[in-house]
């Protein structure tokens, strides 16, 4: 099941007309979910048109971070126990990638595991995920931690964008960075999660607690 970018339709809660009456108000759970989220697309440099790069700027990733995390949270909520979810982007920006992964693992506190796919995909050439990164602001300043961010910018550069103190516990090296030259493709980021039965049942989309709100998005 793919969580769609289309905002006019709540795909995750679509009801099937062929279901019996007793099932129509029941929220479906899925054993496999793909979250191919909206992203800045900087991994597509080999194929994207000139117009794409004229519009691109370094803040696009910051602006999408909140939405990406919301989609990933919703995906986990809709996942069955022991189910797997793939989170993917065509970006190399850690704010869209490892920051979302670590925020997701923090949110679900041990009920979600980042899976090592090395044995399943032994011939896939890739680079490991990052465990350290900095966050860039509008004025070009770089911050290594949330504590360094000025008070008036903390809503735009939330804590979830930064590596957590326990980042090494998350094994972010299990994330896969697929660089264009490695397989003659576009650039991608992929992380595979498995859900533990310990996780609480999903809420409906109306009362779901999302980690970030619209105020967290960058200017």
UniProtKB/TrEMBL annotation:
Keywords: Methyltransferase, RNA-binding, S-adenosyl-L-methionine, Transferase. The active site is at 90 (nucleophile). Residues 199-219 are annotated as: Disordered. It comes from the Eukaryota. The keyword Transferase applies. GO terms for biological process: RNA methylation. GO terms for molecular function: RNA binding; RNA methyltransferase activity. Pfam families: Methyltr_RsmB-F. S-adenosyl-L-methionine binds at residues 10, 36. Residues 1-196 form the SAM-dependent MTase RsmB/NOP-type domain. Belongs to the class I-like SAM-binding methyltransferase superfamily. RsmB/NOP family. This is tRNA (Cytosine(34)-C(5))-methyltransferase-like. It comes from Hirondellea gigas.
